Amino acid sequence: MGVRLMVVDDHRLLAEALASALKLRGHRVLAAAAPAAGAAELVITRAPEVCLLGTATPAEPGMFDPVVKIKRERPQVAVLVLGPVPSPRGIAAAFAAGASGYVRHDERIEGVERAIMKARAGEAAVAPQLLQGAFSELLNPAAQPDDEGQRLLQMLTPREVEVLVRVADGEDTRLIAAGMGIAPSTARTHVQRVLMKLGVGSRLEAAALAARTGLLDRAGPVPHEPRPPEL
Fold it and tell me: Domain span at residue 69?
């Protein structure tokens, strides 16, 4: 029997892709995307069995306030945090807020589904490799951890960064071209260069990598008003 779900994430493309995949596996998805600020109210109103709640910065103070509010108002809702590779503090903060588990943004759909079923059954849902990584970091903290998001950001030109943000926002080639004031063929070329530089094979993979590493938050928002075409 399918689970009554909500997928709540700032990044519409990721949320809708995950929601579609879960629907194909027989689950009932109530909503696919919403800004983090309104996540708690949306979940409280809809009262799903399980909520997948996206976050880009799990160690940031107050990031799990929506989880606290959901569990206070709807304690029967199991909340799974969907985020990047977490620090030990990030995992601890998620569970302290009342989350039932933590799932990486780039987890395979089978792993996401296993976590959902565990959460609905009242079990803790964290992949063993995440716990191993957390314990390893606690025992052997890195003096200067590698900032993958910053490294990837430095590989891209400012225009390619804007293209990546637009891809993560779910814009197709036509919308990217209109928003940046360039020809669709030029937009396609930019997208292909971004995929090549990031070492991924699809727009969805690029969006997932950017979200997981925090690159999207470093890049900042892009204008959504159409620009005049370049001469």
Answer: 4-126
